Automatic annotation (TrEMBL):
Domain Beta-lactamase-related residue range list: 34-373
Species of the source: Streptomyces cahuitamycinicus
Coiled-coil annotated spans: none
Record-given protein name: EstA family serine hydrolase
GO function term, MF aspect, one: hydrolase activity
């Protein structure tokens, strides 16, 4: 039975609803997902299928976008300086040859501390301060600044410790006070207990036999760089799919992977980043958006073992995923399928969430067709 599509689109965005409906019609009968978009601060798409309109999902690494937005605000304020050494704010980070690394290189995944030799416990993964303490003492896995690799589970803690040392506030507190509350965003770094009933647990991947064969053909050694980055070398290796389903992760909201959001929350955050929304001014000035959306790390990612590109933290979404987007688009996808970005050229802010973990992981493949439909409609306005 085909899922019913709920929600609204603005005039001129009817093709987005059609594209979403066509995608959902080809999915499993239990599909749940949400799609939302803004153009120049005005909501133009608000669609969902298979669940309540106000459901919340674990958004995995889409969380990182909120963390980088906090850092961008503090740089814009003058509280943080990108070309200062990390040790200016966090002296203990100098251990094991990391003393020359700048904040700029830390954000661009060039630190080399993607994990620790023995991995982390769940309690440590949930607590950015504990992660930072462990990482400060860790020997880097490559010479800092000379290469890059995705710091999947830890970059939010690294950035968060710099924020905490500079402001006396946690990254999560700054996010709450300066971003989530003023804009009323349905995107939480630390889910309040009264919101728990809205959370929909992540469902495991359901690969076809052909997809399972691909997964089986690409094993990862326990002490490979990729395994270390995803905590596969811990005494109790992390099951990435189940992370958002852990109450401790949702409650603490670690800044790399612990966010809980709706598509409205994701799109609303990026709309606020680049546009006036309601009575609120844009969070970032155009020069700040341009700085954080400039290529910083491009080429072979030592963790992903593939071509990747990063700005200052943000994924270079137009280069790696969606070439139709404007240069300097800032955003981040998540392992559970979520995707979110802001394209300053078109004024488009996009957010997508889904419940079931996609094959092969990362931002779900349907984002390509959905984002193209939204972008095409936005340009036609």
């Amino acid at each position: 039975m085909t899922q019913e599509i709920h929600g609204t689109v603005a005039d001129g965005f009817e093709a987005v609803r059609e594209e979403f409906a066509a995608f959902v019609a080809g999915e499993r009968a239990d599909y749940e997902g949400q799609l939302c978009a803004y153009v120049h601060g005005r909501k133009v798409v608000d669609l969902w299928a298979g669940t309540a309109a106000d459901a919340l999902y674990g958004v995995f690494s889409s969380t990182k976008g909120a963390a980088y937005l906090v850092v961008a605000l503090l740089v814009q304020d003058g509280t943080l300086e990108l070309d200062r050494k990390v040790t200016y704010y966090w002296p203990e980070f100098a251990a094991e040859g990391k003393g020359a690394l700048t904040v700029r290189d830390l954000l661009a995944h060039r630190a080399g501390v993607v994990g620790t030799d023995t991995g982390f416990t769940l309690a440590e993964l949930a607590d950015d301060r504990q992660l930072a303490e462990r990482l400060a003492d860790q020997r880097p896995f490559w010479r800092p600044g000379t290469a890059f690799g995705y710091h999947a589970l830890v970059v939010g803690a690294l950035a968060g410790e710099v924020v905490r040392r500079a402001t006396g506030r946690t990254l999560q507190e700054v996010y709450q006070e300066r971003i989530r509350t003023p804009y009323g965003l349905d995107f939480h770094l630390g889910l309040p207990a009264p919101e728990e009933p809205r959370f929909r647990g992540t469902q495991p991947m359901a690969p076809t036999p052909e997809q399972q064969a691909v997964l089986d053909a690409t094993p990862t050694g326990r002490h490979s760089l990729a395994s270390i980055a995803f905590n596969g070398n811990a005494a109790e290796p992390t099951d990435l799919v189940s992370l958002p389903n852990m109450p401790l992760i949702r409650a603490k909201g670690p800044a790399s992977v612990g966010g809980v959001a709706s598509a409205r929350g994701l799109a609303g955050m990026y709309a606020a980043a680049i546009s006036e929304v309601g009575e609120q001014p844009a969070l970032l000035k155009p020069d700040t958006v341009a700085e954080f959306g400039q290529f910083h790390s491009v080429g072979y990612d030592l963790v992903a073992r593939a071509h990747r590109s990063f700005g200052l933290g943000f994924q270079m979404t137009a280069d790696t995923w969606y070439p139709f987007l404007g240069a300097g688009t800032i955003g981040h996808g998540g392992a559970g399928g979520s995707q979110a970005f802001a394209d300053p050229w078109s004024g488009l802010a996009y957010g997508y969430t889904r419940r079931r973990f996609p094959f092969p992981g990362g931002a779900a493949p349907e984002n390509g067709r959905l984002a193209l439909a939204v972008h095409t409609a936005a340009l036609a306005l």
